[in-house]
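Hi all, a correction to my earlier message: I attached the wrong file for QacE family quaternary ammonium compound efflux SMR transporter. Here's the right sequence:
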Amino acid sequence: MNPYFYLAGAIVLEVIATSLLKASEGMTRLGPTLGALAGYGVCFYLLSLTMKSIPTGIAYAIWSGVGIVLISLIGLLVFKQRLDAPALIGIGLICAGVLVINLFSHSSAH
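and the right structure:
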């Protein structure tokens, strides 16, 4: 199976788990806490499958970069959290870094 499929699944589960972690209110709510733990567990399993084919640094850069953007959007849309200009610039730089790695680095070839 395509390792990017595993990576996409890991990213989606990490974003869901992080959202549930926020909803767990400091792990005081059982349902969201268990959901977060399960989501992270499967997420890391899928990430480990990804790293069989994609170099660790590349996989992690994509996973963390896309995860940051998605969880920031969830924070804005679901939790009504606002980002200021420096935060948006920082997220933009993270996205630019992930693009540079994937488009220009020979490390991403496998």
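Sorry for the mix-up. The mean pLDDT is 92.
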